[in-house]
Amino acid sequence: MELEIRAFTKDRIPDVLDFESRLRKEEDFWGWEINQAYVSAVERSFDDRSFRDCVSLLAYDGGTVVGRIDASLIASHFDGSKKAYLDWICVIKSSRHQGVAQRLLESLRQILKERQIDTLIALTAANEEAQRFYKSVPDSVMKDIGIWIDIK
User: Fold this and answer.
1) How far is the CA of 33 from the CAs of 6, 20, 28, 91, 120, in angstroms?
2) Nearest Cα to Cα of residue 136 among 146, 148, 128
3) Which of 51, 74, 106, 117 is the most buried (most CB within 10 A)?
């Protein structure tokens, strides 16, 4: 596998949509539809200043996206810290266990280090495969409990 990690930019949306479609063919349990509303929201995000603190990377193998990682930078007056939140990391099933997720995470960590971010916070997926991956991440500790609160 010849991996190349690239920033997710607006011109790469078609590559990501192809990735999303292939994800659904291999595993059909994703919680959102690839429809025009989704595509429009992603397109708008690249022109919206509130997304300027996002880091999104794509893993390409032979010109095709096989993995993706997305994080947001968080600044808090609580303790004057800057952290990052890992929003999503996903590798297409047929490319798993080949180091793709590790390379994406390594690339993200390097970008965060350059931006003087010293902590990456993540909610982990509950499935067994994801749990094994997160437990294998160097310099990580599972702690606290995540909660999702809907704003209505």
Assistant:
1) 25, 10, 11, 18, 28
2) 128
3) 117
Nearest Cα residue to 72 out of 108, 104, 100, 124: 108
Given a cut of 80, whether residue 12 has pLDDT beyond it is: yes
pTM score, two decimals?
0.83
Residues 41, 52, 115, 75, Cα dihedral to 10°:
-90
Cα–Cα distances (Å) from 146 to 114, 121, 142, in that order, read: 27, 10, 11
Q: Is 71 exposed, middle or buried (0-12, 13-18, 19+ CB in 10 A)?
A: buried
| Strand positions, DSSP E, the chain | 3-7, 54-61, 64-76, 81-91, 120-122
21/33 Cα distance (integer angstroms): 10
Euclidean distance between the first and the last CA atom of the chain, given in angstroms as a whole number:
44
DSSP 11: G
Has residue 120 got a pLDDT over 90?
A: no
Task: Tell me the torsion sign for CA atoms 8, 116, 96, 40.
Answer: negative
Residue 7 main-chain phi, psi, to 5 deg:
-65, 140
Tokens describing residue 60:
């390409």
